[in-house]
Design goal:
7 helices; 223 residues; elongated; Arc Repressor Mutant, subunit A; 52% helix; mainly alpha
Length: 223
Amino acid sequence: MNEQQVATGDDQDPTGALPELPATAWTVLGMLSFGEGLSGYDVKAWADWSVHFFYWSPSYSQVYAELKKLERHGLAVSTVEPGETRPRRVYRITADGAEQLRRWARESEVDRPVLKHPTLLRLWLAHVNEPDRLRTILTAHRDRMIEMSDEAAARARGADREPSWAFTRLSLRWSERHYRSEAELADWLLGELDETAAAFARAETDPATDLPIARRPGRWRRD
């Protein structure tokens, strides 16, 4: 073994079971499966270029933590190689890493998407906000979604240059449409605000807090 190469495989499971790794580790391993070695900086840059549109935008510390896990499990190996200004550690997938990645992609349970939507949270709390402020929030969200859609479309066009990125391109085309749909939904919400505010105005409020008083407390438990 090259003296600059990190020994791997300390945490391999002799039973042949898939390593118990978070999906983020498998995502990083997936980035190593496109035929080139990557530094931690490269992994972060590529995540920001593609995966962040639909799954994860990691910090550098997260990237390096996942790469270390992959090495411990023998799924990746690293070497120190010359860089433009200084040596850099480059990670490559191992043969076992490629096989385990195939197994994970084929066999692991596909969870439902987890939606954490800060703008919708503000809409849900609109009764403690100002109408103009809420409109500003929704408008900014719509504009940002249009930007994201345009960015994803540009990345999809860039992926045309590399045949091995064909499915990356398709994922980015989906992302383009997803963010465009988010922008359209934001426009729909903006169009519904006045009517919704009029409906809310019929609610009684507590003079001490200016918060609504429920007509039928606890109804959400039964509906």
